User: Fold this.
Amino acid sequence: MQGGVRPIRLLSCSLLALVCLAGAACRPADSRSSAKSIGRDRPSPSAVASPLPAPTYTGTASNASTLPQPDRPLPTDPRQAAAALASTTRSLRLAIDDWLNGTAQATEDPGLAVSLLALYQQRLYGLLIARPSLARATLARLPRWLSGEARANLTAGAELSALTAPLSHPAWFRTGRAEPAGVLLKAFKQAERRFEVRWEVLAAVMFVESKFGRTRSASGAGAQGPMQFLPQTWSAYGMGGHINDPHDAIMAAANYLHRSGAPSNDRVALYAYNHAQGYVDAVLRYAGQMERDSRTYYAYYNWQVFVRTASGVRRVTGPGL
Assistant:
């Protein structure tokens, strides 16, 4: 830790809920778990082995019937799973391109195609994290253009899932709408210019901490806002802003990370932000994917909030709710 920076302990209710890529991926923290295992090998209640046509998107005039509905069953055959993930990812990228071409700064609603395809992609990754044998077989069947990205997402999800436990008071968990993707991206890039912290790293932190501001609950330790600051830490790095304001929180996080060692040592800076090596690795994996293809930022932006409780997992934001 550098410059007297105080660590922000962020193993909070937002992280507990948000590291779960989908219901099937969520599991209690286990000291024996590791990222290599990619979760526990158990079936998802929404997974099926019967053949399913892969979701497709052919442009803004696509028929809604070709898009995956929020409760669409997930394939459990590795060939089907690989085909579904490849088709969904390709279709999602096309839908994102159309979204951005229609609203250059992505300041409007992404539309049904992006929302449904992103949710199905998220649920597919969740299933694979929950079933490591299926994940290994599916990875072996993915096209080369997708295999690296898929492995990074699966590993990051497993790393974060190992840090989580069920919410003790799910009724207290609050959510809200995220600021438009383009508005947040502008803030990330403004923070990068001022503090030299890569915008992809800031976006990955916000993605992990609050799904880009969708969670509104404070942690058990009192961490607040879309970047989950403790009030005393905010007093030192918030620069007079409001802890719950997305723009102010992004700037404060960049300030904190810069004082902690970024950009010369992002790992040290992120470890100061959260003392968990799995957290650091996951954030950098997500950041790397966004740096490789900026459309991945818009895909992550449209991933939704799932919460895990003692009685099961449920989605609390997104299409159909």
The beta strands are 47-48, 74-75, 306-309, 312-315. Residues 1-14, 16-42 have pLDDT under 50 and may be disordered. Residues 64 and 113 are 8 Å apart (CA to CA). The radius of gyration is 19 Å.
